[in-house]
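Same chain as my last thread, 280 residues:
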Amino acid sequence: MKESVTVEIFIIGNEILNGEIQDTNTYWLSKEITAMGGHVSRGTVLRDDLDCIATELRAAMDRGARVIFTSGGLGPTADDLTLAAVAKCVRKELRLDTKAQQMIKESYDALFDKGILAQGGLTPAREKMAWLPQDSIPLYNSVGTAPCSLLHAEQAVFISLPGIPKELKGIFNSSLQPFLQETFRGGISVMHTITVCCNDESLLEPVLTRVVPAHPDVYIKSLATMPGETPELDITLTAVGSDRASLVSLIGLALQDLTKGFSDLGFVCRNKYTKGFDQL
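reply #2:
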């Protein structure tokens, strides 16, 4: 029997321990990880204390955790210390990541264009979110502004997610899926995300109900929002296996069925994000 991947979860924020906000992320992450076959051995809540966070993360590594999730502390303010703590834990420097920087700029520009913010672009505070531990991989946040950070260090992998549940779930169900599928289910993975110009997931359900069972080897996930909350919805397609070309083909066929179905209903689709296609 394949040994389960050991996971620890760290929820970071004074607001949790002060009783201002209830932690729902531990419950949700534990449920999702367990469903994929992972073993959550411990969940911990910590204050915004650089040395404390770094010490506890190192202790998780010493206990043999293979995947270490953090939630919270990725924002633009001085008390958002999670990435600095991860860097200290693994003895790496924080470095400005240009891909993360571009992701953040595009997110703020989009919010400005929609009239949600009075200013787009980067500021020193916003750019702070692009300073990641050396060798980290930034993962796109389709819901908010702070990218996820993924870092391989020694025997462990650190996944630093935003604390806002909606953002955490959005990243987990989209840009983090290739890593999750490879780690917990084995093999290699490819992913493609499309954006559909529709603000009501129920209108897309007839197509999803038909296409999902027709492509059982492709994990198809719609990132639902409240009806009318945004003018668009994202849908991710992920496939896991041993042959990348075959996986790309599987996703291509499912994508063709989805886009045709949405088009027949009058909805416009556009490509948003891919992972693994450029390695063919």
